[in-house]
Write a structure and sequence with these properties.
The structure is a single chain. By secondary structure, the protein is mostly helical. It folds into two domains: 125 residues, no CATH class; 42 residues, no CATH class. It has eight helices and three strands, in the order H-E-E-E-H-H-H-H-H-H-H. Strands 1-2-3 form a three-stranded antiparallel β-sheet. Strand 2 and strand 3 form a beta hairpin. Helix 1 packs across helix 4, helix 2 packs across helix 3 and helix 6 runs parallel beside helix 8. It is globular.
């Protein structure tokens, strides 16, 4: 989001959403003026229900806890600036792997997604990039069918978007995940 306004990014995302999901999938960003950093959250809705919440405060709390846990487990002093920075980066990556994203992570993922080939986006380790790729109009039915086996190894939220897309495209897929918890 560093180089473009959210309204322009949202328009680009909406234009890339496949026809079968247009109007069903929505992207929203909310900033909280009274927050210390004026950041808020980003969320993705399906049929006007929030399915993926990327709240900066929630993410920051989890990153802070993960940092303290790494310090405690490895008995590392807080005095070493370089080591603290490495721990912070590691904690952030671990929290993202758990599916907990901040609003700024969403912005970064959207910008990265918009500037990469769709084939690379499908193979990304970033959960948001992979979700955006699954609902992208450049992904066809054949590619969705080829993903059938590998999608079983993904996070529940990624499987949800895969099944949503298959359902919208009327593609037969294997088991549908149970009730999805909001991320």
């Amino acid at each position: 989001m560093r180089s473009q306004l959210w309204s322009k990014l949202k328009k680009r995302l909406d234009n890339l959403t496949c026809d079968s999901l247009k109007g069903r999938v929505g992207f929203t960003v909310t900033n909280y003026r009274k927050a210390h950093d004026q950041m808020g959250r980003a969320f993705i809705t399906v049929d006007k229900k929030e399915v993926l919440n990327m709240c900066t405060i929630t993410s920051d709390i989890r990153i802070n806890r993960k940092e303290r846990e790494i310090h405690r487990i490895n008995d590392i002093s807080y005095d070493d600036y370089q080591k603290n920075h490495e721990i912070s980066v590691t904690a952030h990556e671990l929290v993202k792997k758990e599916g907990i994203y901040a609003q700024y992570d969403f912005y970064d993922a959207v910008e990265e997604f918009l500037n990469m080939p769709i084939e690379k986006a499908l193979k990304s380790d970033d959960m948001v990039i992979k979700i955006l790729a699954l609902i992208d109009r450049r992904i066809g039915k054949r590619t969705l069918h080829l993903l059938k086996e590998s999608i079983q190894q993904e996070l529940e939220i990624i499987q949800y978007f895969y099944h949503l897309r298959c359902e919208a495209e009327q593609i037969e897929y294997s088991q549908r995940p149970g009730k999805l918890k909001v991320y």
